[in-house]
Design goal:
The chain is α/β, with parallel strands linked by helices and 715 residues long. 63% of the residues lie in helices and 7% in strands. The protein is built from 31 helices and nine strands. Strand 1 and strand 2 form a beta hairpin. Helix 7 runs parallel beside helix 9 and helix 18 packs antiparallel against helix 19. The longest helix has 50 residues.
């Protein structure tokens, strides 16, 4: 399976990176609210219970039914227009032109120009669901053509002083837009003169109908019909058009077609009901099988939510929500199961009826009749229900590997993009300037936007974690801990913390994130005090922008009092680099934090951005040595001199010194000789989640009490 997944992903990689497929996929997602609205309105108005329909149609004199019908019509009758605009807009956003909105406007004009009749009239019906394929193709082709024409245009109008720059920017697009619309109008004229009708969809349907007339009625023609129907659906063509055309003119006319054995005319059955009941479970593609497979195997929250929303509609064979929601259309990963599942279910159903295990479908049922009920009504037998259950299980098994494939593909692609974002942040840290991650011009803008949305959800649902890295003194006692933010975005994989902070800063989530971190810390500290009698000083990192928020001291004071945390046990850490650019507002905030009972820690001191004199002009309770000094303490005498100077200064300025990144006994011993008495690093412990940190704290407390007891006994 892993080999299959790897080979499949390599084949699909070039498709996933295609701007065309991305625009179609994103456009379908943008149109999802309209699709959901149409699906649920259709479900209610076509619910296959006569008593319910009668009640709904007469409720308040039919006003409710009429209102729902208007909602359904307002959604489905313009769905092609929605797709046209959303897909062209998605294509436009991938390049972010100077004047947004021109691509959808051009696509709309091109659509009307191409589909207008010979006398220039345009029917509003051509915005309905039957014309989705035209909308998709014209949205993409017009967008590509417009982009190429803009690139070919070399002349740019010169901006005059005092004139609107927007006006001259629009002049740049005038000729490309006009030429694009003209091309579609000319294509309409050419096709009308040759075919008498520019409706490519109708031409395809007529060609397919002629093909079936040559093949005759057989199981082979039924399978071909299923295959072509799903090819249409996959490329955005509403399959109901083909279904109605062929079933009216070929499969059903005059008689009930015998799909089981043409040589046995006594065995009769309606093909339309047969396909609806046993093959198209949930609509084209047997998508109820996909919905169940997603609910069984998918871990992505968005996909599971979509599957839950789709479950009720697909039970009544309304499939647009799941097809355009995932989306299945134009999604190469789901092409195989989308085509294969209904073909396999056709063969299995054919075999069961042929063997006499299931009666033929001799009773017509409404197409919205729910699964299992339709199987019983169509056959008049419980065996029809059992066949549906068998096909349902078979379809789920066929879809499951591809759900895993889609999930694995998404995970690998997401990890790669997240790693690239983390690398950008790391590079920015080295030069002292974090890049803008939510920049529409960036190729990673989409991933950064998704991460920002997920971060907002994680803050809201308290899905973020706080780990604690212990700080130990030279006597082996626990003297505090640093709270570190962790976000397990993938199973077993945590996001780079500075990336989380950068996203929060850009997305305006820093205040909400800071409050969530502080609340989590206070909750843990309260638990340790009440349940275990431990009062452990905890510090957490605060960004310079958060210190600009005058509400931070008040929030800290409120939480400290709410959770019963003693003054001095909570501390805020600011980096040396941030401290260098302290404004008057930040200075005031730090002073208010001290008044609220918080300790102030200077983190990463000694990075080379400041001097010793900086400590004389500002009050800090604890100064934490930068890791570069600690790591080089054994090999670089200058590091020892700098640390010795900081420790000497700490005695006169009354602040403590804590060495970070302590990893060996030799480092610890050298630091002790220089006068450092507090240590933090992997020699003592890695950052720990709260339960393991509590165990560590209690073990140190027990060890220290044991030593004190032995000393007391000896004395």
């Amino acid at each position: 399976m892993h080999r299959f997944i790897h080979q499949s992903l390599s084949r699909f990689k070039f498709l996933e990176q295609s701007r065309v497929l991305l625009a179609i996929s994103h456009g379908m997602l943008v149109a999802l609210p309209i699709t959901i609205t149409a699906s649920f309105a259709l479900l209610i108005t076509n619910f296959p219970v006569p008593a319910f329909r009668f009640w709904l149609e007469n409720l308040f004199g039919g006003a409710v039914y009429h209102t729902l019908s208007l909602v359904q019509n307002a959604s489905s009758n313009i769905i092609s227009l929605v797709f046209l605009l959303s897909i062209s807009y998605s294509f436009e956003r991938s390049k972010e032109p100077r004047v947004p909105g021109l691509y959808p406007m051009t696509a709309l004009c091109s659509y009307v120009a191409f589909l207008s009749g010979s006398h220039g009239q345009f029917s509003f019906e051509r915005f309905s669901s039957q014309w989705i394929s035209h909308a998709i193709v014209i949205a993409i082709v017009s967008s590509i053509l417009l982009e190429k024409l803009i690139q070919l245009q070399k002349i740019s109008p010169r901006k005059n002083n005092g004139e609107s720059s927007l006006f001259f920017a629009l002049l740049n697009y005038l000729l490309p837009i006009a030429c694009t619309v003209l091309c579609f109008a000319m294509l309409n004229v050419v096709l009308s003169s040759i075919l008498q009708n520019p409706d490519v969809q109708e031409l395809l349907s007529s060609t397919i109908l002629a093909l079936f007339k040559d093949l005759g009625r057989s199981i082979s023609s039924a399978l071909l019909f299923i295959f072509i129907l799903h090819i249409f659906w996959f490329f955005g063509v509403h399959g109901g058009i083909l279904f109605e055309l062929l079933s009216r003119q070929f499969f059903i006319p005059g008689t009930r077609m015998d799909i089981v054995s043409l040589s046995n005319p006594s065995m009769e059955g309606q093909l339309r009901t047969f396909i609806d009941t046993f093959v198209l479970l949930g609509g084209c593609g047997s998508v109820i099988c996909l919905v169940l497979a997603v609910l069984l195997a998918e871990k992505r929250r968005s996909q599971r939510t979509l599957a839950k929303l789709s479950l009720l509609p697909v039970l009544c064979n309304i499939n647009e929500l799941i097809i355009f929601g995932i989306p299945i259309a134009f999604n190469p990963i789901f092409l195989i199961p989308f085509l294969l599942t209904p073909i396999v279910l056709t063969l299995s159903s054919y075999a069961f009826v042929l063997l006499g295990l299931v009666p033929q479908t001799v009773y017509s049922v409404d197409w919205t009749t729910p699964l299992f009920l339709s199987g019983y009504v169509a056959t008049g037998s419980i065996s029809g229900v059992l066949l549906q259950a068998f096909n349902l299980i078979l379809g789920v098994l066929l879809y499951l590997p591809f759900v895993h494939l889609s999930q694995h593909h998404h995970t690998m692609s997401t990890k790669q993009q997240v790693d690239q974002l983390a690398s950008q942040v790391q590079e920015g840290e080295q030069v002292g300037k974090i890049p803008k991650l939510l920049n529409p011009d960036s190729s990673l803008y989409g991933m950064a936007h998704i991460l920002a949305d997920d971060l907002a959800y994680a803050i809201q649902t308290n899905a973020l974690q706080i780990y604690y890295q212990p700080q130990v003194d030279d006597a082996g006692r626990l003297v505090g801990a640093e709270a570190l933010l962790r976000w397990e975005y993938f199973q077993g994989t945590f996001l780079y913390p500075p990336l989380i902070i950068a996203l929060a800063e850009e997305a305006g989530l820093q205040r909400a994130l800071g409050e969530r971190i502080l609340q989590t810390i206070c909750t843990d500290m309260e638990s340790w005090r009440k349940e275990h009698g431990l009062e452990i000083p905890i510090s957490y990192n605060v960004t310079a922008s958060l210190l600009e928020d005058s509400s931070l001291p008040e929030t800290l004071l409120e939480m400290r009092e709410q959770y019963g945390i003693a003054p001095g046990l909570l501390g805020v850490e600011i980096t040396e680099q941030a401290a260098l650019s302290l404004s008057a507002n930040v200075e005031a905030c730090l002073e208010s934090l001290r008044e609220a009972g918080a300790k102030i820690l200077l983190d990463d001191f000694g990075m080379g951005h400041s001097s010793m004199m900086y400590l004389q002009n500002n009050h800090f309770d604890i100064v934490k040595l930068d890791g570069s000094l600690t790591r080089q303490i054994l090999s670089n005498p200058r590091s020892q001199d700098i640390i010795a100077s900081i420790i000497y200064l700490s005695r006169s300025l009354l602040f403590d010194v804590c060495a970070e990144y302590v990893e060996t006994e030799e480092q610890t011993e050298t630091l002790r000789k220089l006068g450092c008495q507090k240590f933090q690093g992997y020699l003592y412990s890695a950052p720990l989640e709260k339960t393991k940190f509590l165990t560590f704290a209690r073990s140190l407390q027990t060890a220290h009490e044991t030593i004190q007891h032995r000393l007391a006994v000896k004395s």
